[in-house]
Design goal:
136 residues; alpha/beta; 41% helix
């Protein structure tokens, strides 16, 4: 299975996702794509990603190939993450046939009603567990 992890800003959420995914599912291919070079660099620091890329075209290109796309909820909203998510990125992610696994965050101007208040590490653990049950 090919899992695309997308993150922006400092890439902390993406780094945690990449690391946990590779630890639990070492046979899955995990691609880290940052909306900026700092996010990509941080996701690579753990040494777990199978591949990495940066920017709008990387998001668009890899979204069409992935079985699963995971990242903060803002990745599907144009201009989220303080403008780092371009309309082209959000369209590519939202239109992808991949299963979308979104981590609720407070930085995207949207509140997801009905989501329990948890620590970020708990959301990441929930997302990684959910991805393990997806059949490619």
């Amino acid at each position: 299975m090919e899992i695309l992890v997308i993150d922006g800003q400092g890439g902390g959420v993406g780094r945690s996702l990449v690391e946990e995914l590779k630890k639990r599912y070492p046979d899955h291919k995990v691609i880290a794509v940052g909306t900026n070079s700092a996010a990509t660099a941080n996701m690579l620091r753990g040494g777990y990603a199978d591949a990495a890329a940066t920017g709008e075209n990387a998001v668009v290109f890899n979204s069409s190939r992935a079985d699963v796309i995971v990242g903060p909820a803002g990745i599907v909203m144009a201009n989220a993450m303080y403008g780092e998510i371009t309309p082209k990125m959000s369209e590519a992610i939202s239109s992808s046939p991949a299963e979308l696994v979104l981590i609720p965050m407070n930085h995207c101007r949207a509140t997801i009603i009905g989501v329990a208040e948890k620590r970020l590490s708990e959301y990441i653990s929930d997302a990684v567990t959910f991805i393990g049950g997806i059949k490619p």
